[in-house]
User: Which sequence fits this backbone?
């Protein structure tokens, strides 16, 4: 499985990341699957790499991380992109998250840890995202391990599910499904549908807007807490 980095990734990102492990866990509960994260692509604007979508009182709301624009940012490796802390985006993000989820069932259980990551001043977008991703892996209890790629992986061939295979120097061969450019805020994908995960869970503002699919994984965790794991993998049992 090959994914791009993401800031509070959407549910489709985590569904894709958990796909292989979800198939194995039924027969081997202690299994751990590796998920490769593209560490050698250049920065891509207006993507999930520095934004997420939450369910706010006024409808879907984007939270973005400003980055430092020095030199040719679009030819800078993703691992070298620095977060711009001269902008008070952390306080804005925390206010937006608090407003959207303060009444959700499990927000108080995770609030301090999530805000501590945002307030830690991690200098690069890559490391900030990695801290966030690993936090949700632990809290949802997914048996996956993030492995950065050693080089940029060129798409090799089309896969039946709509992804592609990629080959590179990571484990001596193909890394499997390539979702780096499929999961994007301006393009619909079929990942949740293909994995039979287009099903509603409780959302704070569902009575006003109906169920909103493929929001940030924080939407699932704040609303479902420990049941988030069952939501992501029970179809595979």
Assistant:
């Amino acid at each position: 499985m090959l994914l791009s980095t993401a800031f509070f990734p959407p549910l489709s990102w985590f569904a894709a990341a958990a796909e292989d492990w979800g198939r194995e866990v039924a027969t081997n509960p202690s299994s751990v699957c590796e998920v490769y994260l593209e560490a050698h692509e250049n920065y891509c604007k207006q993507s999930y790499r520095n934004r997420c979508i939450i369910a706010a009182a006024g409808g879907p709301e984007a939270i973005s991380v400003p980055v430092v624009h020095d030199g040719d940012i679009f030819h800078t490796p993703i691992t070298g992109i620095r977060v711009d802390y001269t902008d008070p985006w952390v306080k804005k993000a925390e206010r937006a998250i608090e407003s959207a989820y303060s009444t959700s069932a499990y927000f108080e259980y995770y609030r301090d840890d999530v805000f501590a990551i945002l307030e830690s001043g991690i200098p690069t977008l890559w490391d900030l995202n990695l801290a966030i991703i690993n936090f949700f892996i632990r809290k949802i209890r997914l048996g996956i391990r993030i492995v950065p790629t050693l080089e940029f992986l060129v798409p090799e061939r089309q896969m039946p599910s709509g992804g592609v295979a990629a080959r590179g120097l990571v484990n001596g061969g193909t890394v499997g499904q390539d979702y780096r450019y499929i999961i994007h805020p301006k393009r619909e994908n079929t990942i949740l549908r293909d994995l039979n995960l287009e099903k509603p869970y409780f959302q704070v503002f569902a009575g006003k807007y109906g169920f909103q699919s493929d929001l940030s994984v924080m939407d699932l965790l704040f609303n479902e807490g420990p049941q988030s794991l069952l939501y992501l993998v029970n179809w595979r049992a």
